[in-house]
Structure formats: structure tokens, C-alpha cells
Design brief:
- A hairpin with a 6-residue loop joins strand 4 and strand 5.
- The protein is built from no helices and 11 strands.
- The N and C termini lie far apart (37 Å).
- The strands form 2 sheets. Strands 2, 4, 5, 6, 9, 10 and 11 form a 7-stranded mixed beta sheet that branches. A 4-stranded antiparallel beta sheet has the order 1-3-8-7, with no helix packed on it.
């Protein structure tokens, strides 16, 4: 399984970015998918996740109302639309594939494959 994240960049506070994560494999729709981020000197933290069908989404309180996770199972791709960006959103963003039946999709332990990360920098 390979996960390829893209879409990061430099943006001013208040701006928007859309991250994409393309996955290899034939059974993409069977897996919960998540986005995490890691700022310099900090632990990797949960941002958002989405069920295999896309019917259920979950967000960290810090991004609720500003970020939207979605997926296109026909394209094997999960997205993270980030609006109203703040300097504290600056981090490397990682997509990940959920372990089946994990039940802990807000923690890194709930995921078994990770993308390489894409850097998001928000200037004030």
C-alpha cells in the first residue's frame, strides 16, 4: 500500500489549501482514512478521519468548522479542505490508512500505513 500526499504549501493566515492523498490498491473504500499533523518539536496529532463509505467524519476540536475531510473512492483519494488557516496550523500533514476494526481512529495506533507528509506553512 502506498499513500501519496500532496497539496501543501505556503499560505497567509485566513487562506485556504486543499490536501490530497492518493492511495494504491483495489479496496480503498473498505478502509477508514485519516489526516494527522506534526508541528516542529511536537507529537503527531489527529486532525480528521473519514469512514470507508464517507458517511461518517470526525474532527479534532482545533479544526472543527474550518477543515473538511472527504473522499472519492472511484479515484482512491482522500482530501482535506482547509479554510481560515491559522499560523498554529503550520505542520507537516500526513494521511494514513486505518487498521480494520481499530476503533481508535483518533490515535496514531489506529493506522497501519502512512504517507510521506506534505508541509503546510501559514504565515501571520
Amino acid at each position: 500500500v502506498q499513500l501519496q500526499a500532496s497539496g501543501g504549501g505556503l499560505v497567509q493566515a485566513g487562506g485556504s489549501l486543499r490536501l490530497s492523498c492518493a492511495a494504491s490498491g483495489r479496496t480503498f473504500s473498505s478502509y477508514h482514512m485519516g489526516w494527522f499533523r506534526q508541528a516542529p518539536g511536537k507529537e503527531r496529532e489527529f486532525v480528521a478521519s473519514i469512514s470507508g463509505s464517507g458517511g461518517r467524519t470526525y474532527y479534532a476540536d482545533s479544526v472543527k468548522g474550518r477543515f473538511t475531510i472527504s473522499r472519492d473512492n472511484a479515484k482512491n483519494t482522500v482530501y482535506l479542505q482547509m479554510n481560515s488557516l491559522k499560523p498554529e496550523d503550520t505542520a507537516v500533514y500526513y494521511c494514513a490508512r486505518g487498521r480494520p476494526f481499530s476503533g481508535s481512529y483518533s490515535t496514531t495506533n489506529g493506522y497501519d500505513y502512512w504517507g510521506q507528509g506534505t508541509r503546510v506553512t501559514v504565515s501571520s
